[in-house]
Amino acid sequence: MKETINPSTTRDRGFIALMLLTAGMLVLVARAAPFVGDTLALVLGVELLVWARVSRAEGPLVAGGVLTGIGTGIVLIAGALEDAADEIIGATFLFATAAGFAIVAMLTQLWLHRRRLWTWITAGSVAMVAGAVLAGTHVLATWIEWGVPTGLITGGILAALRWRASVGAKKLVRAARFARHRG
């Protein structure tokens, strides 16, 4: 019996092999040059994004975008911001993570022609926390006390309005179908 190999399975195995080899090489080189090890998450994130582009798959795109953002934060903190104040380090990591979610949102729209509202919500929320961290603990505490509940209530109202509009639209479609069958 002849076995057929699925091209996507072959491609996926190739990318998995590439990522394992890349991770191994970076960890090994990091023994001599520690900064190279700090790039591991960023490099793997970019490889996942390439995989997502080639395969047109959402899984590697989400993982790649988030990992690219986190990896960028690690590289910035380990390099240029190594001696920065704690607030700057924390805010930088959060801003980079938010950028990772924004990458997911943009590339999902560009490459897969799908909108993922949750990615924009996550990016915006993490960026707001980053801004609050940068502004200081008082601002962060105030934002958590007032901003989070206000955001949740606003989101709930918007979701309810969209749900209500979709229910109304469905009723109109049913009414039009009924009228067409009667007429």
Describe this structure in words.
The protein has 183 residues and is an all-alpha fold. It folds into two domains: 129 residues; 47 residues. The model has no long low-confidence stretch (mean pLDDT 87).
Unreliable spans are none
- Give the ordered list of helices and strands: HHHHHHH
Shape: flat
Number of strands: 0
* Structural class by SSE content: mainly alpha
Q: Largest beta sheet, briefly?
A: none
Distance between the termini: 60 Å
The total number of structural domains is 2
Query: Beta-strand level of the residues, as a percent range?
Result: under 5%
Number of helices: 7
Percent helix among the residues? over 70%
Work out the radius of gyration: 23 Å
Output mean pLDDT. 87
Oligomeric status of the shown chains? single chain
Features:
86% helix, mainly alpha
Question: Concise description?
Answer:
The protein has 183 residues and is mostly helical.
Fold blueprint:
Blueprint: H1 7-30, H2 34-38, H3 40-55, H4 58-78, H5 86-112, H6 117-135, H7 137-182
Helix pairs in contact: 1-3, 3-4, 4-5, 5-6, 6-7
